[in-house]
Amino acid sequence: MSVGEFSNKLLNAVAIGIVVGLIPNAILGEVFKALQPVHPIFSTFLALVGAAQSSIPVIIGCLIGVQFMFNAIEIASLGATLLISSGVVNFITVDGLPAMQLRGIGDLVNIILVSIIATILIKLLQGRLGSLSMILVPLIVVTSVGIFGYMILPYISQISLFIGNVIQRFTTLQPLLMSILLSVSFAIIIISPISTVAIAIAVGLSGLASGAANIGIATCCMTLLVGSIRAKNKLGVTVAIFLGSMKLFIPNWLKYPIINVPIILNGIVGGIVAYFFNIQGTPQSAGFGFSGMVGPINAYQFMTQAPLMRLLIILVSYFVIISISAIIIDFLLTKTLKLYQHHVFEFNS
């Protein structure tokens, strides 16, 4: 198997796994949150769709196993390996007793790195263990690679910490420049293996900085939507992007770096829009864009205009302007400058 084929199989599994885990909470999270005062059951529902996000490492492991045609034992072993090395599982103490807590979706960079190592190891073990594979595959893969991944997690997480420190510096700049830089940064981060939510909370983005980050994520979404439609992807792919699954395009982003050009240009437009309309938010809302309407709902609460004017501003800033700019940028780069063709947005799984 070539390196390219190996990478495509693995990254496609990662992209789809992220979508599967994120979609329930992206669509229903805010609905359940709003319905919590109605009945306590909705708090349980909210926790359940949140738990689905924390299952992303296991989902990715299973999908990688399917891509490489692993057997059931190998798939289960890979899923368990990614779970314990992802950072999703946190060890705490409750009433003096050891317990585990699920938190977030894990460090995607570490998940990808560990999945590469574990997949290669499983391929090397195939056909060598005979009837003992049921015992030895989990024992070797889960313990060796899983523990190794857990041990290197603090060091791999430094990548996100470094990016967070850079983002922190942006917040000290002149407001318009800050808005543009944050919008562009989060537009790129959302399509990368790095978590926008984790960085936004770690840095404590609030006010205009949070709003600019949200608009930046929205610009990436609109850019990918236009590219996906022009590339004639299946409807499900385009809908998934609109619902907030920009990481579906991680394989394309890595294979075709030219994708960053329209993303950056539309991110600049988004930063100007956020500054002009004074879009604001909180650290908890900064990494979502309009996924689950988290960004728009928080922006609405910070506005002082009449309700209809607030809704109009949100519609114009989060959807209208950046979608029009995405179409114009796409036309200029593909038809006028001929910088790339729409095949860079083709989703192949």
Automatic annotation (TrEMBL):
Keyword Calcium carried by entry: no
Subcellular location as annotated: Cell membrane
Keywords of the record: Cell membrane, Membrane, Sugar transport, Transmembrane, Transmembrane helix, Transport
Keyword Membrane listed: yes
Topological relation to the membrane, as annotated: Multi-pass membrane protein
Regions that span the bilayer: 12-32, 44-69, 75-93, 105-125, 131-156, 176-202, 208-228, 235-253, 259-278, 309-333
Main location: membrane
Pfam families: PTS_EIIC_2
Classification via InterPro entries: PTS_EIIC (IPR003352)
Domain Phosphotransferase system EIIC, first and last residues per copy: 9-346
Protein name, as recorded: PTS transporter subunit IIC
